[in-house]
Amino acid sequence: MEKSDQKEIVLQTKGLGKKFGKRWAAKDLNLQIYRGDVFGFLGPNGAGKSTTIRMILTLLKPTEGSIQIFGRDLHGYRHSVLSRVCGIVEKPDFYLYLSAYKNLEILGSMTRRVGRDEIMEVLNRVGLKSRAFEKVKTFSHGMKQRLGIAQALLTQPELIILDEPTSGLDPQGMKEVRELIKKLAKERSMTIFLSSHLLYEVELVATRMAVIHHGELVIQGSVSELLEREALEYGLQVSPMGKAIELIKRLPWVELLSAENGKMEVRLGPGRAAELNQFLVMNQIEISSLYAHRTLEDFFLKVTEGASEI
């Protein structure tokens, strides 16, 4: 078990499990999320991620095990604990013919009185202040997702739980949500529990992560430490190609595998994807896409084969 003597454990599960009939959707989960973490909860579709989140938010009753949030048992202190937590489990729903501002005014009033300044402040934090009085029906999927996070922020949570927040988004929308998550963690010191089936997404935003497969915990720990096990191969679409090639050749932790028709294949040193992205952007290289070739299933195979050593 990973230990941290200096950080407060915000969320902890012990032996947590949920059984539907004869099938365990989640079993013997022991998770530790520390204050200030962006915690990536990884697994393919059907691995048990949503079931686990629903138990944490008391939308499902566990079959076995316990959940502690802020050091208190969730079963015994449900109201006081969850008043400090906000979760977005499904795609956020809004009144499409009302403005973003009006939606937040209505939805915020369901829990407490919220003022104009507070609504405008959360809209500003998610990058929607300039669109505050436009109808939500004109918003892209990514903008609606950010508006959902703005709604969550109105409750002033200490812990935000997001279930597949980039699901169904185009690359630009995914980038916007990623940047927002990093901003909230850095500027507001929020603890964010983020489920995803995309290893690459989690690598870019998370500080710690856990991998779940067939309802069981495979591995848990620091993202940088877990991903330092091996180099990764990535595909990039960049412009201008010639300048990008010259720049990449200067980096000792990047191996250029191929480059043609505006696309290149590289092998990166451990945990270097975000660093490569930043390096190219700073040198005026336009990046259309950067994606890992290794799939989550490949990662599962690696950590499962070495499970006895972990």
Low-confidence stretches: none
Quickly give the structural class: alpha/beta
Total DSSP helices: 11
Q: Give the overall average pLDDT.
A: 85
What's the total number of strands?
A: 15
- Helix amount, in percent? 25-40%
Strand content: 25-35%
Strand order of the largest sheet: 7-8-9-4-10-11
> How many angstroms does the end-to-end distance come to?
10 Å
What's the alpha carbon Rg, rounded to whole Å?
A: 21 Å
- Major β-sheet annotation: 6 strands, mixed
H/E element order:
EEEEHEEHEHHHEHEHEEHEHEEHEH
In short:
The protein has 310 residues and is of the alpha/beta class. It is built from 11 helices and 15 strands. A 6-stranded mixed β-sheet has the order 7-8-9-4-10-11, sandwiched between helices. Strands 1, 2, 3, 5 and 6 form a 5-stranded antiparallel β-sheet that branches.
Write structural notes for this entry.
With 310 residues, the chain is α/β, with parallel strands linked by helices. The chain is built from 11 helices and 15 strands. Strands 7-8-9-4-10-11 form a 6-stranded mixed sheet, with helices on both faces. Helix 5 packs parallel to helix 6. The chain starts with 8 loop residues before the first strand and ends in a 5-residue tail after the last helix.
